[in-house]
Amino acid sequence: MDRRSFLKLSAASLGTGALLQFTPAKAALSHFARRNGEAPSPFSIVQLSDTHVGFNGPPDPLGTQAFERAVDTINALDPLPDLVLFTGDLTHDSEDASEHAKRMKTFQSIASRLRVRKRFHVPGEHDAALDGGTLFREHFGETHYSFDHRGVHFIGIDNVSAGKPMVGKEQIAWLRRDIARFGHATPIVVFTHRPLFDLKPDWEWFTTDGDEVMNVLAPYDNVSILYGHIHRAHHQTIGNAQHHAARSLIFAFPDPATTEEKKPLPFDKEHPFRNLGIRQVSVPSLGVNDVELTAREISGTEGIQQLRKGGTL
Amino acid sequence: MKKAFTMAVLVITIHAKRFEFSPNEVHLKRGEQVTIRLVSDDRPHGLSSKPLQLELDGNDEATITPTVSGTFKAICDHYCGTGHGNMKLTFTVD
After folding, report:
1. Which positions ≥6 away from B70 have C-beta within 8 Å?
2. B32-44 confidence digits (pLDDT tens)
3. Chain B residue closest to A264 (CA)?
4. Are A14 and A76 in contact (CB under 8 A)?
5. pTM, full prediction
6. Of A33, A96, B9, B37, which alpha carbon lies 20 to 30 A from B1's?
7. A129-152, pLDDT tens digit by residue?
């Protein structure tokens, strides 16, 4: 069974994140009922990233408004997604630990408005790199872990709290043990902060030992990696793995292929959610549609409702 | 008795502190071995350049031989605070 016959993954980046819909093929159902004791069934998840609560520098004068708008947007979905995955940089760091803790509490306060109760987090460097993840653990629990949900295995990977962009031998050994019980056709979703491949090293868009992580995952046919960090949507297939970056909820970075310097795109007061707006992204190799929305008149709940009708705009 | 002669390898010391390298422009010669030494003056920093296969952390050094001419950016890849993203250095290989 190859990945196409098994899993249809629909990726609709909301600007607010990515809505992923899992639609397993019928042939997969009995297979996973045998393997995992739980047959996969269609469901969706939402990925949110880089909310940077506490960030107050240019170019973004909106603070948490995009994050709060995202929460409202998700709450309007019917049916609700099963899970929300936050892929790091939940907060912006502060030299003052009490201020940083306050930012984590503000994040939790906003996130708690989500009607989706199952929320999972991995840290970004702004959350965990200065203190080795101490504050993050106090507020959100372990920085790496795994769980099963309706036949899909989810793995949260920490590639920031060492200070360097790395996962580390201990966590990689844990990963190897964690997935050993699964067959190679098991659908696996990894969520992490930095790209696990060399996307743009001189913009610090890489993980030093990302290739070792991917080598552990290489035997598995259905691997999707959801990450953030780069503040823009990006999709790349490497081997059997699909790598999907979500947009940020604070400001956007430009395309490194066309821009020399890494600096945020300027804020557009006429279109305050530009580049943070709603966007549905296709992953052609997985057979999904591609619909791009702008943040003008069609945004927020209205945009989602139109998406749900399945039309293009 | 023959004496063993070893060529002295040029050592270039780069100091790092939040949020800059000193020097932040370094010239190297293609084909010439050089030791790059990183000294982190305030807290741990990194010095990373994939094209030069340079990966230093904290107080660290490595000996490299540049094989390709050009200009190569290096960054701090050990997160050191809010100005971390601006911490860059340029290697020019002649």
Report:
1. B51, B92, B93
2. 999 999 999 999 9
3. B85
4. no
5. 0.86
6. B9
7. 999 999 999 999 999 999 998 888
Which of B50, B57, B85 is closest, CB to CB, to A164? B57
Tell me what percent of the residues of chain B surpass a pLDDT of 70.
Answer: 93
| A92, A164, A198 ranked by CB distance to B46: nearest | A164
Rounded to whole angstroms, how far apart are CA atoms A167 and A123? 12
Helix (H) or strand (E) holding A301: helix A300-308
Query: Nearest CA to CA, how far is B75 from chain A (Å)?
Result: 6
Does A129 reach chain B within 8 Å, measured CB to CB?
yes
Q: How far apart are CA A280 and CA A11, in angstroms?
A: 7
**A29: contact with B, CB 8 A cutoff:** no
Which residues, including other chains, have CB under 8 Å from residue B71's CB and lie 6 or more apart? B90, B91, B92, B93
CA distance A295 to A15: 9
Q: Are A299 and A285 in contact (CB under 8 A)?
A: no
Sheet holding B10-17, edge to edge: B20-22, B10-17, B34-40, B60-64
Q: Report pLDDT for A272.
A: 74
Q: Cα Rg for chain B, rounded, in angstroms?
A: 14
- Tell me which residue in B44, B48, B50 faces A163 most closely, judged by beta carbons: B44
Contacts 24+ apart (CB under 8 A), A41-45: A41/A150, A41/A151, A43/A81, A43/A82, A43/A149, A43/A150, A44/A19, A44/A20, A44/A79, A44/A81, A44/A82, A45/A19, A45/A20, A45/A81, A45/A82, A45/A83, A45/A84, A45/A85, A45/A189
Number of helices and strands in chain B (H, E): 0, 9
Distances (CA, A) of B33 to A29, A219, A288, B10, B62: 59, 40, 51, 7, 10
CB contact under 8 A, A130 and B81: yes
Pairing of strands A222-227, A152-156: unpaired
Q: Token pair for residue A99? A: 């201020």
Q: How far apart are CA A28 and CA A24, in angstroms?
A: 6
Residue of B79, B86, B87, B90 to mutate for A, most A C-beta atoms under 10 A: B79
Mean pLDDT of all residues in A97-122: 97
Q: How many CB atoms lie within 10 A of CB A33?
A: 13
